[in-house]
Every structure is written in C-alpha cells, then in structure tokens.
Amino acid sequence: MTTSQEKTLTVALMDPPYESEASTTALRIIDAALRKGISVNVFAYEGAVNLTMKGQAAHPNPVKGTSAEEQDHPTTARFISGLFGMSGEAAKLDWAVCGLCADERGAGDWIEGPRRGSPGDFYKFTQESVNTLIIGAR
Amino acid sequence: MSVLSIVEQAYRGTVEEQDDTILWLSHMLKNAGADLNILLRSNAVNYAVKGQDASGLTIGGVPLTVPPTIDKDVQALIAAGVTVYAVQEDLEDLGVPQGDLIGGIQTVARSGVAGLFDKHDTVWYW
Predict the structure, then answer these.
(1) Do residues A129 and A96 touch, judged by C-beta distance below 8 A?
(2) What was the ipTM of the complex prediction?
(3) Counted domains in chain B
(4) Which residues of B touch A (CB under 8 A)?
C-alpha cells in the first residue's frame, strides 16, 4: 500500500439532500478527514447527485415567521462548497457525480468542484484508497 | 374532517431542514385551518423530550447558525391547538421518563392507539 493510498478515503453516497441524516453524517466525516490531512474521494450515486445542485436556494420559514436571511439555511451545496474550500495540497477532495444519474434527474448544473463521473471512477477510487465507506439509501 | 397524523421516523433530515418536515407540514396545515392532531410513536417519541440542542455544527467552515429545535416546534404545535400524543411504551423503551417531556404531551398506551384512530376521521401515516 502506498502512502497516498493510506492517506485517502473513499465515500459512496446515495441519499438525496433533506431526506435523512445520512448525508449530514457523511459531510461531517469528510470534513474531519480533510482537517486531518486525509484526502477524500466521493462518488455521488443516484439521489446523491442532487446534493451539489447549484440552484439550491435558502427559503423563509412561514411557521416561525422568519425570513430567508434569519433562517440562514445552509444548503448541502453550500456545505459541500465549503468542503472544496478545504481541499488543497495537504488533503484533496475529489467528488465524482454519476453522470447518468444526473441526466435522468436533470441534475447536471452543480456548484464548482464536483465533476461528471461514472461507476468506473468509483472502482478506481476504491483501488486508490485505504478504505471505502458506503452510505447507502435506506 | 379530523386528522390523526402519525410521525414515526425521527430526525429524518432535521439538521439539513432545520426542522422536522412532518411537524412543519402539520403546523402549516393547522394554520390553514386543518383539524389535526399528532401521534408520536417509535423513535419519534423523542421529539417530546425537552432541552434538545443540535447547535455547534460546522461543515466546511459553514456553520449551522439556526439548528433545529424540535422540542420547541412540538411546543408551538401544542400552543397552536394541536393535541400531541406519544406512545407510553415507546417512551419506556427509550428510557425517557415522564419528567423529561415538555408540557402538554398526552401519553397513550399502545393498546389505546386504535381508540385514537376511532376518534379521528382519517389517519395519515408518514
């Protein structure tokens, strides 16, 4: 095992945003890994392609009578954009979006950082990582 | 038409949403005039526990400045006239004593749930 393998983790995601705590947990793990100098490869599969949609918008909360500004809703796209801000020489974040999954959902317009990918990227990721964490939909 | 809305799956996207989607929807429907009550069962009985704190989360340097406050959302529903029931045995299974619950929660035995169904015209199971 090479040093780069030992310092790289792969995470596979399937959940769409706002439906479960799975993606929040995954983002926390990715954040922690990057802070510890561990590079992270992400394969966003099926509903997870929506996590990085550029068009995600914060909204007001009519139940609480709060404005969008007061709610300061941190969309998953904002969180992930922040994670890309942590990516650099010490630890790199590579985020491959399943292209066919994005096509069928019309989810091709994503924030800066993720790239179009395929299951082949996921397989390559697993070969280049010390371990792979699967966070499947339930 | 009276509605009994059953919430069973707890903490489903609550951090990303800043609330629980069904409690939020229920409050919106109540504000729109719905005659609606809520039954918390399974893990969702934990929504009735007071003093929940989901603050302090930051991902990628982006802080969650407005975390979910589910117990306060349940209190707001009660204040709006929604009766909120919680299954007693589910509370006991999770080790939640009565004293940990917010005020106004109506506990109901599992054997009494069918009776609640009878008291409402329709049941929505989320």
Answers:
(1) no
(2) 0.90
(3) 1
(4) 11-19, 21, 24, 27-28, 31, 57-66, 73, 76
